[in-house]
């Protein structure tokens, strides 16, 4: 059983509930009270509960979306950091060309770095120079043949010849499937298929 003080009309604040009920009772106007159906406190509590549940559901959706976005950002950050670290380690772990050449020259006493990169064409320099070219070619895949040629003060074809001469059956670690600068055995004049007649 409800008392008249617990009824509220829609659109009124809860503090005005008693005043609104009292005014209706005093006026005695039944037509006015029928037009504005009074809402009970239980009805308002139900409406508020539905709105609170809807807002809680929306908050939960937003929290899940935020967690998903944070996870994607962290994943991308890990990828970027990993790629940066790999690139930096590759840059800083490269041995200088001079160190590679001097290591290769360890087997050839009496021949200096200057002899190798010099313009001399003596027979005693050919084999050590080719060995140095091959060592640098193998250890520094970031350097192109023209760059290696500039280092040794030679044409890039000299480096190519040294590599082919030292390791005839070895394909370069850069992913070549055949010797550099050579056509396959079955390549024709056009370089594609069987020999042209």
TrEMBL record:
Domain Chromosomal replication initiator DnaA C-terminal: 96-166
Domain of life assignment: Bacteria
Region (Disordered): 1-33, 165-197
GO molecular function: ATP binding; sequence-specific DNA binding
Annotated coiled-coil segments of the chain: 52-79
SUPFAM superfamilies according to UniProt: TrpR-like
One Pfam family matching this protein: Bac_DnaA_C
GO BP terms in the entry: DNA replication initiation; regulation of DNA replication
Biased composition (Polar residues): 1-12
Annotated signal sequence range: none
Key words, A-Z: Coiled coil
Entry protein name: Chromosomal replication initiator DnaA
Taxonomic lineage from the root: Bacteria, Pseudomonadati, Pseudomonadota, Alphaproteobacteria, Hyphomicrobiales
